[in-house]
Amino acid sequence: MNYVVITFLWLSILLYFVLGGADFGAGIIELFTSSHQVSRTRRTLYHAIGPIWEANHMWLIIAVVILFVGFPVIYTQLSIYLHIPMLIMLLGITARGTAFVFRHYDAVRDEMQELYNRVFVWSSFVTPLFLGIIAGSTVSGQIQPDAKDFLTAYVYGWFNWFSVAVGFFTVALCGFLAAVYLIGEAEDERDRREFIRKARNANLIAIACGVLVFVAAEIDNVPLMKWVFKDAVGLLAVSAATVSLIALWALIRRKRRLLLRLLVSFQVTMILLAISYAHFPNIIIMANGESLSLYEYEAPAKTLAALGWALLVGSLFILPALFYLYYSFQIKKMRHFEE
């Protein structure tokens, strides 16, 4: 049953990056949109993320619950050494959700709308930044379990070149995801061309940030090159991501909205696979050489069995409901535009 639990953990992290990442990316796009275009962009964002934006955080909750119940030692270590970036990320999620609701549903339109807008766009930037920092920190080898002072124990483990570079790469990737998704939400050709331009810019920034991640990995002695290019699965995943990127840009002007979304989601999946497969099942790599494995630090067999069955049974109820929610607000609308 541990394989079932691990599969759900990986899928929940992947879905949060893909769906939640596109959600955050919508705010990032708004942050970097000029003032004379922001109202049109904001209107499209409302149609895109309004119906499903809160459901995206369900995947993060599932991942946290799986770690808490199924891998308590790993959960504890993450909560101790990375509590600062985790707190900032959670504050960003809270601020973003609050600002989105108030700026959309506030009955009084006054100067507070500008405050809501600023909180929304900046929390949309900060939250994936620290999500990426947390992800990078787990495999950076910078966490010091034997630290004797506060900065070494709770700051330098995540405030380093590699983790910060992964954070900015995550932000760029979220912007790219959102821009591609929003191409299918544009109601006229002018908006569609604008989102294609934003997707191109976000793609270039993501590539630059990806190069920065490899440079930072060399500085901090993270064997990223080995994980990605000296492992058969990693190399295959990178190749697949590259081919899908070429296919995406070949099809981006042909109004294949669903196919574009599948391609960009596939790219993110391959990127995560390339980075995570080589050091699996080690989910945290410490500075002293110790690694916390999902196999060695799992909960008792009965606990994992109960968790696994709960996830399997729960998915029978949750997944169809989520699919219908997405179908109701996205696929029906997509078919309307294509007709």
UniProtKB/TrEMBL annotation:
Transmembrane segments: 6-32, 53-74, 80-103, 115-138, 158-182, 202-220, 232-252, 259-284, 304-327
Species for this entry: Chryseolinea serpens
A molecular function (GO) term: electron transfer activity
Topology term for the membrane: Multi-pass membrane protein
Biological process terms in GO annotation: aerobic electron transport chain
Keywords: Cell membrane, Membrane, Transmembrane, Transmembrane helix
GO cellular component, one term: plasma membrane
Protein name: Cytochrome bd-I ubiquinol oxidase subunit 2 apoprotein
PANTHER family reported for this sequence: CYTOCHROME BD2 SUBUNIT II (PTHR43141)
Subcellular location: Cell membrane
Principal place of residence: membrane
Family per similarity comment: Belongs to the cytochrome ubiquinol oxidase subunit 2 family.
